[in-house]
Amino acid sequence: MSDDSLIQLTQDLIRFDTSNYGDEPGPGEREATEYVATFLSNLGLEPVIREAEPGRTTVTALWEGKDRSRPPLVLHGHLDVVPAFPEEWTYPPFAAEIHDDMIWGRGAVDMKGIDAMFLEAVKRIITSGRKPARDIVIAFFADEEHGGRRGAAWMVENHPEDFHGASEAVSEVGGFSVQIAGKRTYLIQTAEKGISWLRLVGTGIQGHGSLVHHDNAVAHLAGAMTRIGSHEWPLDINPTAEALLRGVAELLDIEYEPTEERVAQIVAGMGPVSRMIEASLRNTSNPTMMDAGYKTNVVPDVATGYIDTRYLPGQQEQVLRQLEELAGNHVKVEQYIEQPAVEAPFEAPVVEKMISALRTADPEAVALPYMMMGGTDNKHLARLGINGYGFAPLMLPDGLDFSSLFHGIDERIPISSLRVGADVVVQFLLDC
């Protein structure tokens, strides 16, 4: 089938401004959701649109497979994107222009290009008269970029029947290639760090800015944010990370050792994704926002800050206790958004099918598991007992710093990568 429809799908989806401003109002996903629902309806499926709040919509559809006795697989994406500011971009972020054989625009990587790849694969199979190996639950969620409260989390809480019996889920941020020692290696995401967005509230005594203040809310908060931001979390290698490090060490032809020095050497050998992998080997806590006061000469009695914390599986409580200690007596730590760490097995039949599909396009493909430093809607589906994987198979050009494109200025995706990805997803769904 021509690639024109894949390119058009990607451009159409990017051109819907579905910017997610978090707790602030935004355009929502309604128009993009209706576009996807129409696309699926035209293929003979029966999509259902549900709305958690006005404009915050999710669409699901059941696609019957050859073997209906097997548990369904969930193929899902999200339709919201983080905001983009045109003055910062080389090309307009919602124009989906093609330059240098890439489609540019907000969501090209995260994740409307992948959404298009999934939809194109569904279209190719249906129009060829074939069926997937088993039932597929197709889902495109709202609100992934702000924790999923109005998207996947809402669906799991209010409409779990849409995912009844499903055993595995496949979505973004995995299956992409990196060059390691000259070998193209595909990183399949089998685990995600937990997410804890924290609100820090510093308190003190309000007063005139000209007086001596020993109980200053802004100073208390600033001290807490500095201590947390400069805290060095130790190296902590869990089984998923160890499997990745051992595999990369073998490719680099060096011996694996769980030491800071050797791990740093192995991670450095992963090139553009090294920062992403480094973040999966320890807990992290980064100050991101602060708000206090209303006038220069008034010391406020409250100051608020926010921390983005990502913790390793099983370490939620100990990380929170450490942050409370770092915050100090005058600053209260409140959980703002909480999502659990999740892990799924790499040694599993569904992963074997992923690797087999990859090798139809790249016979020498090496596949390794990795833990994502962030999170996806797989976290919410895990509450239904569904093992989630990142498998958006992209054969990327050598040297492309793919990880920096997520939420970045001038986000873009190579057309050639989308083409190969659509082929691989077709093979995977026919064999999954």
From TrEMBL:
InterPro entries the UniProt entry points to: ArgE/DapE_CS, Bact_exopeptidase_dim_dom, Peptidase_M20, Peptidase_M20_dimer, Peptidase_M20A
Peptidase M20 dimerisation domain sequence ranges: 190-331
Highest taxon in the source lineage: Bacteria
Pfam families: M20_dimer, Peptidase_M20
Signal peptide, first to last residue: none
Keyword terms of this UniProt record: Hydrolase, Metal-binding, Zinc
UniProt cofactor(s): Zn(2+)
PANTHER family in the record: ACETYLORNITHINE DEACETYLASE, PEPTIDASE M20 DIMERISATION DOMAIN-CONTAINING PROTEIN
NCBIfam families hit by this protein: PRK07906.1 (NF005913)
Family stated for the protein in its record: Belongs to the peptidase M20A family.
Record-given protein name: M20/M25/M40 family metallo-hydrolase
Organism: Demequina zhanjiangensis
